[in-house]
């Protein structure tokens, strides 16, 4: 992963760029990374936009062809990528680093980054996956309306080399990807769960306009979040639950 690296000065979204490459031209090698200094239409989850100051942050997309992952288990890919990013940053942040379900990277209660994974399914099988990752690295200030974004620089008061972090992330993603490929899925699932933000803590959530107190107890194989709520277990998808601070 990351051997074939394309760097762009400016693009709408690296995810869009990579998806266009796939649909237009000759085959794109697995592991290709498209990195941009800036995006003018970066996309986040839940139809959000992704803002990042030009040249200061990591915004890139990588291509995997996870044909060996059954569609019903595609959340394993989310685990692979989250753990890869996590491992690349952990030497810098240690225990303060967590994975906020499903795939945000948190330091304490600030969001360092996130990912947008777009899977292409063909004939009932995963064919390719465009994995977009955005990480706040050297940005100093975030607008007032970006609620809880934080950068490595704000936390550690140093500048970081973007290429260096990128290459760490790529190597670790490859490690976990190969674990899944070799059938070591339990290892990946257990590790992902152990890294979760708010795991086993009594916290406030919102679902369908109802606030409630509950405790995250696990993530199902298919990626649903299981929260214990007044003694019963409820499962939620991304659109059904919100974390309240
Ligand atoms: C989120 O937390 O909502 C996901 C953010 C994903 C942002 C990255 S930046 C590189 C890639 N290109 C995009 O348009 N989005 C992803």
Automatic annotation (TrEMBL):
Its EC number is 6.3.4.15. One of its GO terms (cellular component) is cytoplasm. Gene3D superfamilies: Bira Bifunctional Protein, Domain 2 (3.30.930.10). GO terms for molecular function: biotin--[biotin carboxyl-carrier protein] ligase activity. Residues 1-181 form the BPL/LPL catalytic domain. It comes from the Bacteria. PROSITE patterns: BPL_LPL_CATALYTIC. The keyword Ligase applies. Keywords: Ligase. CDD domains: BPL. This is Biotin--[acetyl-CoA-carboxylase] ligase. It comes from Mucilaginibacter segetis. The lineage of its organism: Bacteria, Pseudomonadati, Bacteroidota, Sphingobacteriia, Sphingobacteriales.
């Amino acid at each position: 992963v990351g051997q074939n690296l394309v760097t762009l000065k400016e693009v709408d979204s690296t995810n869009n760029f990579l998806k266009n490459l796939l649909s237009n031209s000759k085959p794109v090698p697995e592991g290709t990374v498209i990195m941009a200094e800036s995006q003018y239409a970066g996309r986040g989850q839940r139809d959000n936009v992704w803002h990042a100051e030009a040249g200061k942050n990591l915004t890139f997309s990588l291509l995997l062809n996870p044909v060996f992952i059954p569609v019903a288990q595609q959340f394993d890919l989310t685990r692979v990528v989250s753990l890869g990013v996590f491992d690349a940053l952990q030497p810098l942040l240690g225990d303060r680093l967590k994975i906020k379900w499903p795939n945000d990277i948190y330091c304490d209660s600030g969001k360092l980054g996130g990912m947008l994974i777009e899977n292409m399914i063909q004939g009932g099988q995963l064919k390719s996956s465009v994995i977009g990752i955005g990480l706040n690295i050297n940005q100093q200030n975030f607008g007032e309306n970006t609620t809880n974004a934080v950068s490595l620089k704000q936390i550690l008061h140093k500048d970081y080399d973007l290429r260096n972090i990128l290459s760490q992330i790529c190597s670790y993603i490859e490690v976990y990807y190969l674990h899944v490929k070799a059938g070591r899925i339990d290892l990946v699932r257990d590790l992902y769960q152990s890294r979760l933000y708010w795991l086993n803590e009594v916290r406030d959530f919102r679902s369908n306009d109802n606030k409630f107190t509950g405790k995250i107890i696990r993530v199902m194989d298919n990626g649903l979040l299981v929260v214990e709520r007044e003694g019963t277990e409820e499962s939620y998808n991304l659109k059904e639950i919100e974390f309240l601070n």
